[in-house]
Specification:
2,3-Dihydroxybiphenyl 1,2-Dioxygenase, domain 1; 226 residues; 29% helix; globular; alpha+beta
């Protein structure tokens, strides 16, 4: 099954509740109570079984976060769009409103000169599994690690051609919906941050805190695989 880019997903109707974050579709429903959230999840599970496509669901007071992706192909497909539309219809029938602006994902990025040498150490110490994010390229092997329990951030290993001593070797990637990025960046600048580069926007903007520690605000748009 063919995976879809963020731009292709955004062109579909019926996804107003949802935002593309990394290689997932996410939304958050304001249920108002834990009991209402549990009831919504029960009905989502019925749709998921019917479609044979199951999202990740986190129930908290007072909201439910829903995330869908096609794990077997490593990205978003028509199955995710169908599932998202059905869940939106269900939420409307339940009188539950969506707030996708709160959706995000955290990623730790490590600059490396020899990814194949470094990645096994982190796989072992974290207890993570191989993954492939493939930012800007199509790696022959894994370029990232993920938590098999889905609780902790991905770790991405950014292959470097030469050392860059003028910058930190580890930084944080904050992955947000495209319509949230500008607000998040402006808030960071008003809090004392500095914009170092927007040359790859809207894929990512590079910022730094007052002491030079870097973070990237990222979206799933504008990512071209070379």
């Amino acid at each position: 099954m063919t995976t879809l880019s963020a731009e292709q997903v955004a062109a579909h109707d019926g996804l107003e509740d949802w935002r593309v974050v990394k290689t997932t579709l996410q939304t958050s429903y304001a249920t108002g109570s834990f009991a209402a959230g549990a009831r919504l999840v029960g009905r989502i599970s019925q749709i998921a079984d019917e479609l044979n496509h199951h999202p990740d669901v986190t129930v908290r007071y007072p909201s439910v976060l829903v995330t869908t992706t096609s794990h077997d192909v490593g990205g978003l497909t028509e199955r995710d769009i169908t599932l998202a539309r059905r869940i939106s219809e269900l939420a409307r029938s339940e009188g539950v409103s969506a707030d996708p602006s709160v959706c995000s994902a955290l990623e730790i990025a490590i600059d490396v000169l020899d990814r194949d040498a470094v990645l096994p150490f982190w796989r072992a110490v974290l207890g993570y599994q191989d993954s492939a994010l493939g930012y800007g390229s199509d790696p022959e092997g894994p370029d990232a690690l993920r938590d098999p329990g889905g609780r902790h951030p991905d770790v991405w290993f950014q292959q470097m051609d030469a050392p860059r001593p003028q910058r930190n070797r580890i930084h944080i990637d904050v992955c947000v919906p495209e319509d949230v990025a500008e607000t998040r960046i402006q808030a960071a600048l008003e809090a004392g941050g500095v914009l170092l580069s927007d040359s790859r926007a809207p894929a990512f903007w590079v910022l730094a805190d007052p002491e030079g520690n870097e973070a990237c605000v990222c979206t799933s748009f504008g990512r071209v695989r070379e």
